[in-house]
UniProtKB/TrEMBL annotation:
UniProt protein name: YeeE/YedE family protein
Membrane-related topology note: Multi-pass membrane protein
Entry similarity comment: Belongs to the TsuA/YedE (TC 9.B.102) family.
InterPro entries: Sulf_transp_TsuA/YedE
Principal place of residence: membrane
Species per Swiss-Prot/TrEMBL record: Rubrivivax benzoatilyticus
Transmembrane segments: 12-28, 54-75, 87-110, 122-139, 179-197, 206-223, 274-293, 313-335, 341-362
Length: 371
């Protein structure tokens, strides 16, 4: 059992590691324009699947890495938010659709707005603050009461965990650590085959997506392996350190933005502490800013007018509320959640994609009317 001093040093290491992972995410995203909403917009407007292939490459690498770590006994989906036995399908659909629509109105998901903030966008600063505030309301405030009393009531229980490897292991009787690497390799191979099938799947953008997948795996290792203590000195129980959920976490943005705002507003309260999620979000801004300054692409940017402001505010509220309701964003569910092959994540991401396409269709119709 670690001493209090050893535990404090370990916490600092975890937070520093999370910041570095976030900074790498921000730098890569700034350099390669990695963006889920942008990927959907490219497909919708031009039929260009380059950035979509980058996103799928990120998922493929994350799936492979996560399941290899399951095979090594380092992590388990059951220890995360994504591997429980209950599938809240209505929350996933409603929250996912809200997030998908919101990211179109706000010109990008929560992660993309953090990257743009690092590049000098004051619009993104407003979006990030509103996502954090509305996300906190969805966790603890008036919208939380509505959420718990409505969509969260609908779902079903599974006899085993909802992650594919856990479910297959329970159904077949095969050891999870034997089954998981093979399943992860098969799914990753299928996804990468689609990514590499066309020339646009072999460029810098897709390489950036693969690197994002590596960072998601690194975050799982940081939280689930390095951040796990079998016996916490205060509770004498197993614990995952420096996470708001008290479970292992990977990259995700909506809830960390909410907890980060809570930490800033109540900084003098010693119970409010930095976590892996908060530090990774701060790292994204720092990494993006470093690249923007190094490439001389840093530009201050504000709102174009009242309509632009209103659209971004509505989009930010939808993202904050929807991200909490769906248990994640296009990074938290769309890459980290999918890396566990969770049923809830698959439903939530499908709803985000449909919500995103619906938002793009509404934008096109509005432009056509105005034109």
């Amino acid at each position: 059992m670690p001493t209090a001093e050893e535990l404090e040093a370990h916490l600092r290491l975890l937070l520093a590691g999370a910041f570095v992972i976030g900074a790498a995410f921000g730098a890569i995203s700034q350099r390669t324009h990695f963006c889920t909403m942008g990927a959907l917009a490219d497909v919708f407007a031009f039929g260009d699947r380059t950035r979509l292939r980058a996103w799928v490459a990120a998922v493929a690498v994350a799936v492979l890495g996560f399941h290899l770590m399951v095979g090594l006994g380092w992590v388990r989906a059951a220890d995360s938010l994504y591997g429980g036995t209950r599938v809240g399908w209505l929350s996933a659909i409603v929250g996912g659709a809200m997030f998908g629509l919101g990211m179109v109105l706000a010109s990008g998901c929560a992660a993309r707005n953090l990257v743009r903030l690092g590049g000098g966008s004051l619009k993104s600063l407003v979006v990030v603050l509103v996502v954090g505030a509305s996300g906190f309301a969805a966790m603890k405030g008036v919208s939380a009461v509505l959420r718990v009393a409505s969509v969260d009531r609908v779902g079903f229980e599974l006899p085993a965990g909802q992650d594919a490897a856990g479910a297959l292991a329970a159904a077949t009787g095969l050891p999870l650590q034997t089954l998981a690497p093979w399943l992860g390799a098969a799914v990753a191979a299928a996804l990468l085959a689609w990514v590499l099938a066309r020339p646009e799947g072999r460029g810098r953008e897709v390489a950036g997506g693969a690197a994002i997948g590596v960072l998601v795996v690194a975050a799982w290792w940081l939280s689930g392996r390095l951040g796990f203590v079998p016996e916490h000195p205060e509770t004498l129980e197993p614990a995952f350190l420096a996470t708001n959920s008290r479970r292992m976490e990977s990259l995700s943005l909506v809830a960390p933005l909410a907890w980060g705002l809570d930490w800033l507003l109540f900084f003098s309260d010693s119970r409010k502490t930095l976590t892996i999620g908060i530090c990774s979000a701060a790292g994204i801004v720092a990494g993006s800013a470093a690249v923007a300054l190094a490439t001389r692409s840093f530009r201050w940017q504000g709102f174009a007018g009242t309509e632009d402001t209103a659209g971004h505010l509505v989009g930010a509220v939808l993202m904050g509320t929807g991200g909490v309701t769906a248990l994640g964003c296009t990074v938290g569910q769309g890459i980290a959640g999918l890396s566990t092959l969770s049923a809830h994540s698959a439903i939530a991401v499908s709803a985000m994609v449909l919500g995103g396409f619906a938002g793009l269709a509404l934008q096109r119709r509005r432009i056509e009317r105005c034109g």
